[in-house]
Task: structure prediction
Amino acid sequence: MRVVFFLFLSIFFSSQLRAQFLVDTLLTKQKLIETFMGEGVSIFNIKIHGSESSSGYFRLDSNTFPMDEGIVISTGRVSAMTGQNTRPNMTTSMKESQGSDADLARMVSRQIFNVTVIEFDFVPLYDSLFFDYVFASEEYPEYVGSPFNDVFCLLITGPNFPKPVNLARIGKPSKTVMINSVNQKKNKQYFIPNHKFKPTAKTPYTIEYDGFTTMLTASCIVTRGKMHHIKIAIGNVNDFSYDSGVFLRAGSFGSRGGGKSRFILPFDFDSHLIKETYNNLFDSLADVMKANPSWKLSILGHTDSLGSQEYNEELSYARAKEVADKLLAAGVNSKQIFIKGYGYKHPLSKNDSEEGRQRNRRVEMVIIKRS
Result:
């Protein structure tokens, strides 16, 4: 099916393929969201607001951008983002997308224009939600710190969230991801510059935006089998100029776990460090544990099979302890937590491929509910 799909795109949208960057704005909303959907979720009631040209499917056959396939929404025309950066002020805003959004306006207390929104209901199979995203903008770098701070949100509502909670947060203390919080000065480890102002200069990335974040992960605790709502929106702040966009990685919107109240957190090779993009997961898990002081939480570390069992037991325990320390710092009682490192004794997948080894580099968190 996917081979046929890509062939169709190649025939009908070859005019938009620049430097191996393809954009398709003609998919139905159902097909578009199916691109984003991963495992463990069912999706309903899809709505897309904004110009037909401000959202679409993208595919990038290159290693010069944090993700290679997914969907994108923009304050302008998504087709304008393809190709190497040739101008510092790309503006393709359209009159038909000049609407505002109350949620975005509240976040920055300013006027919002050129809004594009994707929203839908979903039911998770397990108790955790994850998805990957990148924020990009032409406002970088010259408007960092200014009132022209284009904004986006990843708002979730559901049984654990009677009021909308924005999952696009990063740093210590946690702040909303936007131009003024992730840039060449603040949280710069999550920022990739792509700006130039001389037409003859070369840029390393096959995308027009002047700057963008690394691939970030939104995560939170959800209630298995219950209806939730997600709203992904972006808008210009204070003017109609300079495009910004949000990229959502294909297949990343999913619910993880092996059963009820079991969560899986991935780790990089030979590392016990937790990425800050998972802070929302720990905040919501800590709230659940503090609200139920009789519950226990087993934190179980695992590794791939590279290296000795002794070394991997130490690494797996370090991973579990890192998770426990996060929860303790968030106020969870130490008597509720059990830590164990298993090394490579309990793999989820075979260790004969990099994909399998990556699945095995993990910490599993299992809630034991007691009255």
Observations:
- Helices lie at 2-12, 29-36, 102-108, 279-291, 309-329, 354-360.
- The two ends are 49 Å apart (CA to CA).
